[in-house]
Amino acid sequence: MPHELEQLEAASPDAGFTAALGSVSAEVLETMFFTEALAVECEHGWVAGAASVLVNFDGSHSGQMWLALTPDAVPPIASAFLRLEAAETSKEQRSQVICELANILCGAVLSSLWPESRLMLDAPQLIAPECGGQGVWHCCLALEEGAIAIWIRLSGVPETS
């Protein structure tokens, strides 16, 4: 785990993981999807109408990551990633891009938190929107157009070998 995360985790494990979730997610959005992402206070009234994706992961750590995007955030993210104008992207392409976004975010966040881990990610699935719950690390980010909410929940006991 990077030194800064170790310090945060020592003070408050949840704060360290939540900070990493936000900073790594913002970096991925900026470098791979060409959109600025800024941490904001959580307000989830919009999640019911969101585009949502779930990624299950297993290995040295197991659990789930899911994300929700405001509908107005999807076209610019898809067009930036595909290097097309928003009007040129189909609904299917947009769905594929948000699944790829979830896959990339999950891998990047988990690799940042546990660089020595062995993880397998399931294929991302479009799901009905939902919000957190207990035992969840969560962050919300404002995008140039819209917002994204990201949750990670660990489950089970890490494998030993």
Please describe what this structure looks like.
With 161 residues, the chain is an alpha+beta fold. It has a single domain (3-154), classed as CheC-like (Chemotaxis protein chec). It has helices spanning 3-11, 13-32, 74-82, 91-113; strands at 37-40, 51-59, 63-69, 119-121, 125-127, 136-143, 147-154. Strands 1, 2, 3, 4, 5, 6 and 7 form a seven-stranded antiparallel β-sheet that branches. Helix 1 (3-11) packs antiparallel against helix 2 (13-32), helix 2 packs across helix 4 (91-113) and helix 3 (74-82) crosses helix 4. The longest helix has 23 residues, at 91-113. The protein is globular. Residues 1-13 and 157-161 have low confidence and may be disordered.
Q: Kindly state the mean pLDDT as a whole number?
A: 81
Alpha carbon gyration radius: 15 Å
Mass-distribution shape? globular
Order of helices and strands: HHEEEHHEEEE
Query: What count of structural domains?
Result: 1
Query: What low-confidence regions span 5 or more consecutive residues with pLDDT below 50?
Result: 1-13, 157-161
Beta-strand content:
25-35%
CATH class term: Alpha Beta
In terms of structural class, how would the helical and strand content be classed?
A: alpha+beta
Under CATH, the topology can be stated as Chemotaxis protein chec
Helix content: 25-40%
Biggest sheet descriptor: 7 strands, antiparallel
